Amino acid sequence: PGDKLSLKTLPFFLYGIFSPNDTNLVVGREKKGKTSFVIAWISAWFYGQSAFCGFDIIGDCPPIIIIGPDMTEQQWGAFLQMYHLADEEGEVLPNGPIKMLLHMGHSFSLDQNGLDLIDQIGELHPGAVFVLDSYSRMTEGLGLREETADFAGPLIQAQAILQRHGCTGVWLHHSAANKDTGKASSRGSTALPAAADQIIFLEYPSANEDDSRTSLRTKGRTEPVKALLEKTKPDGVWICHGTGEELEE
């Protein structure tokens, strides 16, 4: 009694999509552009763009920590080079936003050692954005079954650590899909999406899986947003075909 609780509401990092100091869960089918979307947004943020895919970018880009055991060193190198976060030789920009990158070769797991490492990194880089790709890969050696509530346990533990350091989690997770509609849903137990503050779905706009476009929708504590996006080839630039009311029309 008598203690004051903070009533300050933090603005979005990417308006309506990524929420600071929260757990953001990016859910989508394999090869639907989850990693590309996140890295392209970070690049736009770092290079001072005012918006990404039609959504306002708010504030300065903080330190970025990538824990990405889902992809090899070469795959991460290609992504970072494509979005100008690494140079032509593959060197991560010395003055860039990425302060640490763990790839498949580091065999990261969300066991006690992994949680301790997140704690150490958070202490070194308070306020950082952690990109964790993917949740299934980081938990596959822990003996957890996706259909049980225990599957969310490591995320909830990491969530508490990130909160303590004022850090933001952007977790990537593979989805199941409704073949009739193309709509994505988080694979496994409902405990995982329940633990997230903001869920970003990247899915097929319809049941046609040959459609190159990507439908974005969010589910969280604020008004949901929708957009129809497309990643151009081969340069990987994301464009927006419409949002909100435009999309409904």
By oligomeric state, this entry counts as: single chain
Shape: globular
- Please work out how many helical segments DSSP would assign: 7
Instruction: Determine the fraction of residues in helical runs and give it as a percent range.
Output: 25-40%
> What distance lies between the first and last C-alpha atoms, to the nearest angstrom?
51 Å
Q: Helices and strands, in N-to-C order?
A: EHEEEHEHEHHEEHEEEEH
- Weakly predicted, low-confidence segments: none
Question: For the CA atoms, what is the radius of gyration?
Answer: 18 Å
Give the beta-strand count. Answer: 12
Mean of the pLDDT scores? Answer: 89
- The percentage of residues in β strands lies in 25-35%
Largest sheet, in brief, is:
10 strands, mixed
Could you say which structural class the secondary elements and strand pairing correspond to? Answer: alpha/beta
How would you explain this protein's 3D organization?
The structure is a single chain. This protein is of the alpha/beta class. The longest helix has 13 residues. 25% of the residues lie in helices and 25% in strands. The protein is globular. The strands form 2 sheets. Strands 1, 4, 5, 6, 7, 8, 9, 10, 11 and 12 form a 10-stranded mixed β-sheet that branches. A two-stranded antiparallel ribbon has the order 2-3. It has 7 helices and 12 strands.
How would you summarize what this structure contains?
This protein has about 250 residues and is α/β, with parallel strands linked by helices.
Write the layout of secondary structure elements.
Elements: E1 23-28, H1 34-46, E2 51-52, E3 55-56, E4 64-67, H2 73-82, E5 98-102, H3 112-124, E6 129-133, H4 135-139, H5 153-164, E7 168-177, E8 184-186, H6 191-195, E9 198-203, E10 213-220, E11 226-231, E12 238-243, H7 244-248
Parallel strand pairs: 1-7, 1-9, 4-5, 4-6, 6-7
Antiparallel strand pairs: 2-3, 7-8, 9-10, 10-11, 11-12
Helix pairs in contact: 3-5
